[in-house]
Amino acid sequence: VQLVESGGGSVQAGGSLTLSCVASGGTIGRYCMGWFRQIPDREREGVAAVYTDGGGPYYADSVKGRFTITHDDASNTLTLQMNSLKPEDSAMYYCAASPKSSMGWVLGSARYHLWGQGTQVTVS
Question: How does the average pLDDT of the chain come out, rounded?
Fold first, then answer.
């Protein structure tokens, strides 16, 4: 299974973007899926996560009330709706997945073994 992100781009502060992550080459079963972001020389930060069987969602404090994560089983797609964007939201955004049984915090990168290639978000 591969994760492929899309939807990044440049937007002005206060604007919105929608990121999508499609799982191809197989089916994501009972997994935890999340969005992470990273800027150069900083650790990867968990943004939001959700279980494909309905648990969650979970959000970092910095994005609560502005971002919404959803998963659609039929299309095998994870979506991150980002509203009221701020310059500090600028980063490379990554989609990630791990089996539901995996150990670790849902917003911690160590839990996840499957990663997409990333999509850049720039807010000015």
Answer: 94
